[in-house]
Amino acid sequence: MSYDLKIAVVEADAGRSAEILQGLADGGWTDVVVLSETRALARRLSEIDPDLVLIDLANPSRDLLENLSAASGASTRPVAMFVDRSDDGMTGAAIKAGLSAYVVDGLKKDRIKPVLETAIARFRMISQMRSELDAAKLALAERKTIDRAKGLLMQAKGIGEDEAYSLLRRTAMDQNRKLTDVAQALITATELLQ
Amino acid sequence: MKNLTTLNCGYVPLVDSAPLVLAREMNFAAEEGINLQLLRQPSWSALRDLLALGHLDAAHILSPLPIAMSLGLGGLPAQVDALMVLSVNGNAIGVSTELADKMRAAGWSGRFTAPEETGRALIEAAGSPLRVGVPFPFSMHVELLHYWLGALGVDTDRCLDVRIVPPPLMAETLADGEIDAFCVGEPWGSMAVEAQAGELILPGASIWSFAPEKVLGVRHEWAEANPELTAALMRAVYRASHWLGQEGNLPLASEVLARSEHLDLPATVIDRALAGQIITRPRALGVHVPQFLCLHRGATNFPWRSQAAWIANGIARRHGLDPAAAIRRAKACFRADLYRANLSPIGADMPGASEKLEGAMQSPEAVSSTRGEMILGPDAFFDGQIFDPSAVS
């Protein structure tokens, strides 16, 4: 198998691009360029002229690559991998992992498949780590908000912590709102009244 | 409370996503038994892929995109149907402050709704090729630019360089000098003005006064397999559109859209498109543009097959496809049949036909309809052309 594919990775986060680079290097692909700037991305890509472009599904600059593939003379430009739906399983796996890939039309599938498998595995790992981190951060922020709101209630109404919490929860349920939203509203209102 | 059916609906945070956002937030969806999960998408290509692969059930989608997909152009080929039109018009064309100054120095009046004068001034001042940023290759933005500049004598194949720029980056791309002009949906034109990066020179509505902008898209097979859910979704979105058609509701609509989980931008900027009161340059007073963005008036929501035909005609000619064949396929995407079947029972007024001559109405006209209350138009093109889909060969 030949590994002489030129791969471009569009990724602003240095940590993530290092992960992807490492994954590809482990698989034997070393001709990899990382584009961390989305400015002038189309021009940079046409200069690099890669065989394959990997980009996060969540990257807003992805639409830029659509134009490369939609341009006439697509045989020399990256086109969407998803043009070929013969491998729905892999397309699905890529999407789940948050990866979109653009490959030059005419490249043989068996050359691309291993790259994508590697990239998918890496993206999956990264996106899992990211969502765990986000969830943890969010949970922490929400807990802080709720704790503050509880404190305000306890002070204002002279009630205990459990009672303050159940009052918040009951209000949230009555109003069909999230607990943190009710807590935040209380904090905002209190700040305004001070 | 009865059990709600969860429906995953993708959207791109723009003012014209209002019908879907309000369908959820004002409980129109819940009243139809739908838990409408709104999933904000970072790009049109991501939205398209997720819709085509079934990760999304429905989506707020650029009107030309289902047509391009059914013609096998760009990305995943899939049959996506437009159940109804979510919005008509709503784009604006802008240029850098520098270019606007140059146009003024050459005698441009600066009037916001003068497509011919402004087009000529832009062509004169910008040089060739004219680099214009748009959000996506298959979009009304691209169709309108080709139509406008083409009608003014520009060889758009050679002299129009369309660049794809994500809307939030439009202002800085203009400031960087990567593009001369842009055509973008609100609130991003107004945001470019706010950022003092540029000036708005023309509303899309001044090129075609009734251009279908976003549609409610679902996979064809999904609509076939879920007729009840499809009907319930259409009713919910229609009711939200009707609600948005009442002027008094617009301030609340912009407050809801402004929230962090949706557009996450100031309500005062979102207001401009909803009220048709556009501030074209920093510190200027608003210009009133009556049809800047239509969400309900003049049968906005009806998916005219002739609108699909107009879009297909433009795409086919630029991509070297047979226009007549493309028009046939495109017409099938715009589900006027489902619109009639699902919305007549709740009292929506229906036009007598599902096709019309596009561009024939210079002013509002009463037309025959099931309830006899329908007023259409204007739907004129700036150059007075009339598009008759049956005359395309």
Short description:
Chain A: It comes from Litorivita pollutaquae. Chain A: One of its GO terms (molecular function) is RNA binding. The complex is a heterodimer of chains A (194) and B (393). Chain A is an alpha/beta fold and 194 residues long.
Tag the structure with descriptive keywords.
heterodimer; A: 194 residues; alpha/beta; D-Maltodextrin-Binding Protein, domain 2; Arc Repressor Mutant, subunit A; 2 domains; 5-stranded mixed β-sheet; 11% strand; elongated; B: 393 residues; 6-stranded mixed β-sheet; 39% helix; globular; transport (chain B)
Structural domain count of chain B: 2
Number of DSSP helical runs of chain B: 17
What general outline of chain B do the C-alpha atoms trace?
globular
User: Do you know the CATH topology of the largest domain in chain B?
Assistant: D-Maltodextrin-Binding Protein, domain 2
CATH architecture of the largest domain in chain A: 3-Layer(aba) Sandwich
Task: Please give the order of strands in the largest beta sheet of chain A.
Answer: 2-1-3-5-4
The largest sheet of chain A is:
5 strands, mixed
Radius of gyration of chain B: 20 Å
Helix run count of chain A: 7
Oligomer: heterodimer
List the helices and strands and how they pair.
The complex is a heterodimer of chains A (194) and B (393).
Chain A: E1 7-10, H1 14-26, E2 32-35, H2 41-48, E3 52-56, H3 62-70, E4 78-80, H4 88-97, E5 99-104, H5 109-157, H6 161-174, H7 179-193
Parallel strand pairs in A: 1-2, 1-3
Antiparallel strand pairs in A: 3-5, 4-5
Helix pairs in contact in A: 1-5, 4-5, 5-6, 5-7, 6-7
Chain B: E1 5-11, H1 18-25, H2 28-31, E2 34-40, H3 44-52, E3 58-62, H4 64-70, E4 80-89, E5 91-96, H5 97-105, H6 115-126, E6 130-134, H7 140-151, H8 156-159, E7 160-164, H9 170-175, E8 181-185, H10 188-194, E9 198-203, E10 212-219, H11 220-225, H12 227-244, H13 250-258, H14 267-275, E11 277-278, E12 287-288, E13 293-294, H15 305-318, H16 323-333, H17 336-343, E14 365-366, E15 375-376
Parallel strand pairs in B: 1-2, 1-3, 6-7, 6-8
Antiparallel strand pairs in B: 3-10, 4-10, 4-13, 5-8, 5-9, 11-12, 14-15
Helix pairs in contact in B: 1-12, 1-13, 5-6, 12-17, 13-14, 15-16
